[in-house]
Amino acid sequence: MMGRMPRNRPIAALALAIAAAALAVSGCSGGSAQPSTPPTPPSASASNAPTAPAPTGARPEPQQSSGDTAPFVPAVGDCLDASKEHGLSPSSVVPCEEPHDDEVYAQFDLDGGGFPGDDAVARAAHDACASRFEAFVGIAHADSALEFYTLHPTTESWSTSGARTVSCIIWNPTDHVTGSLEGAAY
Questions:
Q1: Weakest-pLDDT range from 42-46, 111-115, 160-164, 171-175
Q2: Which of 177, 169, 175, 182 has the alpha carbon at shortest distance from 6?
Q3: What's the pLDDT score for residue 91?
Q4: Radius of gyration of the chain from Cα atoms?
Q5: Dihedral angle at the C-alpha atoms of 154, 63, 23, 58, nearest 10 degrees?
Q6: Cα(118)–Cα(152) distance, rounded to whole angstroms?
Q7: Which of 176, 183, 182, 181 is nearest to 99 (CA)?
Q8: What is the model's pTM?
Q9: How far apart are CA 157 and CA 55, in angstroms?
Q10: 175: exposed, middle or buried (C-beta count within 10 Å: 0-12, 13-18, 19+)?
């Protein structure tokens, strides 16, 4: 099972309450608040630029089954349809040319040894993914309409499967995306 840590925003408490209610109904574990929705990005004129259809509402939290013995770790460049009912799994990977929710933009391994604690892992994952954001998108995260979250080891996955990989995942909080967000600069 992997944890995730979105960027904190003013309405995180409301989003956390909504996510907790959804998790209670679905019986899944993990997840946390989604960031607030920034303004809609300007439309791109380049033919290879990502396109996004009309907003479809809040993006569901990607989850892994609590019965997973080894966490699913998507590869850099994978595009994910996190809205599928099956949760985050190999069947979440879709061609980037199709509408999708998320894209893995970076990945790295944490140092081995003993589990440093949930907060330490979440903070290290967030900080390292934040530092890789601008190189992928083309503008600083603070200036971007796009958001990111992390998939990172939990106490359970660290000890039972030796998980050390952190995946940095970018998403547009207002729309699905068609194409890669690499160099999107919005």
A1: 42-46
A2: 169
A3: 87
A4: 16
A5: 130
A6: 10
A7: 176
A8: 0.65
A9: 34
A10: buried
Give the angle subtended at the CA of 167 by the CAs of 108 and 80, to the nearest 5°.
Answer: 145
Burial label, 161 (beta-carbon count in 10 A; 0-12, 13-18, 19+):
middle
Q: Which amino acid makes up residue 84?
A: K
Residue type, 11: I
Structure tokens at 184: 């999107």
SS (H, E, C) the chain: CEECCCCCCCCHHHHHHHHHHHHHHHCCCCCCCCCCCCCCCCCCCCCCCCECCCCCCCCCCCCCCCCCCCCCCCCCCCEECCCCCCCCCHHHEECCCCCECEEEEEEEECCCCCCCCHHHHHHHHHHHHHHHHHHHHCCCHHHCCCEEEEEEECHHHHHHCCCCEEEEEEECCCCCEECCCCCCCC
Q: pLDDT of 53-68, one tens digit each?
A: 333 334 434 434 334 4
Q: What whole-number distance in Å separates Cα of residue 31 and Cα of residue 93?
A: 19
C-beta of residue 169 within 8 angstroms of C-beta of residue 105: yes
What does the alpha-carbon distance between residue 131 and residue 126 come to, in Å, rounded to a whole number? 9
Q: What is the pLDDT of residues 99-136, one digit of tens each?
A: 999 999 999 999 988 999 999 999 999 999 999 999 99
pLDDT of residue 112: 83
